[in-house]
Amino acid sequence: AICGHGCKYGECMGPNKCKCFPGFTGKTCNQDLNECGLKPRPCEHRCMNTHGSYKCYCLNGYMLMPDGTCASSRTCAVANCQYGCEEVQEEVQCLCPSAGLQLGPNGRTCIDIDECSAGTAVCSFSRRCVNTFGSYYCKCQLGYELKYSSSHYDCVDVNECVTNTHRCSLHAECLNTEGSFKCKCKQGYQGSGFDCA
């Protein structure tokens, strides 16, 4: 089975036919499936779509049950949580709908964890970390672009000399480097390469 455009979050089952992993959709399984928009809805009260999955949370005064339903809880109402709560051994704890969020100092609201500055994000050397509310993603470093080759996506060096995105002088030669480029004045000229006289 060969899938010319690849299957980003899935596997190739036949000529250009992808079988997506749960939580993903699209011809090449490159799109996140918004489970919150499915019928029947997976959550009773509120649903938060996450990359490849989703989280359920309840309105204040209710607690989340394991099946995604919300049960009335007088103790939860008193707790005044931003994203619902759960009772653990008769103790009320507020919840955050994502591992990238943590309870704030007041114990009721959720604040974002910046995985990029905390160093907990895992990105390969050719990618840089971009923080989002409740999560993060890995983006190609400057001078690189996302390309699909040999059955996976990779950040590949942009050849600025070929794409004509360099700023070399008309009297200079463009030399491609990993992630960047250099300009060298042609014979008979001198200067920085951006300016040659």
From TrEMBL:
Where does the sequence pass through the membrane? none
Is Repeat there in the keyword field?
Answer: yes
Question: Which PROSITE patterns does the annotation name?
Answer: ASX_HYDROXYL, EGF_2, EGF_3, EGF_CA
The lineage's top-level taxon is Eukaryota
**Which gene name belongs to this protein?**
Egfl6_0
Subcellular location(s) of the protein: Secreted, Extracellular space, Extracellular matrix
Q: Name one Pfam family in it.
A: EGF_3
Using the UniProt record, give the first listed, main subcellular location: secreted
The name under which this protein is listed is EGFL6 protein
Q: Which organism is it from?
A: Alectura lathami
